[in-house]
TrEMBL record:
Cofactor mode of binding and number, as noted: Binds 2 divalent metal cations per subunit. Has a high-affinity and a low affinity metal-binding site. The true nature of the physiological cofactor is under debate. The enzyme is active with cobalt, zinc, manganese or divalent iron ions. Most likely, methionine aminopeptidases function as mononuclear Fe(2+)-metalloproteases under physiological conditions, and the catalytically relevant metal-binding site has been assigned to the histidine-containing high-affinity site.
Full protein name: Methionine aminopeptidase
Residues at which a divalent metal cation 2 binds: 105, 168, 202, 233
Entries under PANTHER family matching the protein: METHIONINE AMINOPEPTIDASE, METHIONINE AMINOPEPTIDASE 2
Reported cofactor(s): Co(2+); Zn(2+); Mn(2+); Fe(2+)
Annotated positions binding substrate: 76, 175
InterPro entries attached to this UniProt entry: Creatinase/aminopeptidase-like, Pept_M24, Pept_M24_MAP, Pept_M24A_MAP1
Length: 254
C-alpha cells in the first residue's frame, strides 16, 4: 500500500506494534522442553489481546497462528505438540497479522538457550545484512540493487541466499506489489521502491542451499541442499530519506 493520510500511518503503526510485540514476547517465552504448539498458542493469545488476527491463518488457512521453523526447516513451519524445542536449536518465528484492515509482517531467527551448535554467526550475518539493506532503501532505489547488496554481503560473510523466498509489499493485505523483493540481483526486475509505500524487507541467508522446497505437509520449506537458514524481517515505510521501521519494537537488532 501507499501511505496517503495520517490515519493510514496510524493504522499501520498499530498493526505493526501488535506483530512486533508478539514476536518479542514469543522470543522471550521460548525455551528448551517446550513444544512449538505451546509457543504458538502463547503468540496467538497476544495477537488476540491486541484484537489482531493471524495473517497466515486468515489468508491461507495456515494450521497455526504463527510460523515456527526449527533447525533444518527454513520457513512456514507448522506449530506442533510433537516438536519439542531443544537447547541450541536454531528457531525462526514469523508473525504477521491484520488489525482494523491493516496488515503487518515481521520475523526473526534466534537460538534456544546456549549456542552449542554454533548458529549465532549465521544469525548475526542475517541481522546485519537486513540492517544494511533497509538503510539503503528510499524512493527511487532499484529493488534489484537492494537484492544485489544482500547477496554481496552474504557472500562476503561466507553464506548464500535463498532465491525463491522474497520480501514483498504489505499493508491492505499480506502480500501486495511489489511482490518480489529478492535477496539477489534479479536483472529482469526493473521496478523501484516508491516513496510512501509499505514493504516487508526480509533476509534469507543460508549455509548451503540456494532454493527452498516444500515438504509433504504442504507448508514447511527446507533447503534444496540442506543446511541452515536465518531470516529477519521488518515492515517499513519507504521515504525520501531514512525509512520508518514500523516493527522496530520487536528488538531483533538488539
Amino acid at each position: 500500500m501507499s501511505i496517503t493520510t495520517e490515519a493510514e500511518l496510524a493504522g499501520m503503526k498499530k498493526a505493526s506494534e501488535a506483530v512486533a510485540f508478539t514476536l518479542k514476547e514469543m522470543r522471550k517465552f521460548a525455551k528448551a522442553g517446550m513444544s512449538t504448539k505451546e509457543l504458538d498458542e502463547y503468540g496467538g493469545q497476544i495477537l488476540k489481546s491486541f484484537g489482531a488476527k493471524s495473517a497466515p491463518y486468515e489468508t491461507y488457512g495456515f494450521p497455526g497462528w504463527t510460523c515456527i521453523s526449527v533447525d533444518n526447516e527454513f520457513c512456514h513451519g507448522i506449530p506442533s505438540e510433537k516438536r519439542i524445542l531443544q537447547e541450541g536449536d536454531l528457531i525462526n518465528i514469523d508473525v504477521s497479522a491484520e488489525l482494523n484492515g491493516f496488515w503487518s509482517d515481521n520475523g526473526g531467527s534466534f537460538v534456544i538457550g546456549e549456542d552449542i551448535n554454533e548458529h549465532q554467526k549465521l544469525i548475526e550475518a542475517s541481522k546485519q545484512i537486513l540492517h544494511k539493506a533497509i538503510h539503503n532503501i528510499k524512493g527511487g532505489v532499484r529493488i534489484s540493487d537492494i537484492g544485489f547488496l544482500i547477496e554481496t554481503e552474504a557472500k562476503k560473510k561466507g553464506y548464500k541466499v535463498i532465491k525463491n523466498l522474497t520480501g514483498h509489499g504489505v499493508g491492505r493485505s499480506l502480500h501486495e506489489a511489489p511482490h518480489e523483493i529478492a535477496n539477489y540481483r534479479d536483472r529482469f526486475n526493473v521496478t523501484r521502491f516508491k516513496k510512501n509505500s509499505v514493504v516487508a524487507i526480509e533476509t534469507f541467508i543460508s549455509t548451503t542451499s540456494t532454493y527452498a522446497e516444500t515438504m509433504k505437509d504442504g507448508w514447511t520449506m527446507v533447503g534444496n541442499k540442506g543446511g541452515f537458514m536465518a531470516q529477519h524481517e521488518h515492515t517499513i515505510v519507504v521515504t525520501e530519506g531514512k525509512p520508518i521501521i514500523l516493527t522496530e519494537m520487536n528488538e531483533i537488532w538488539n
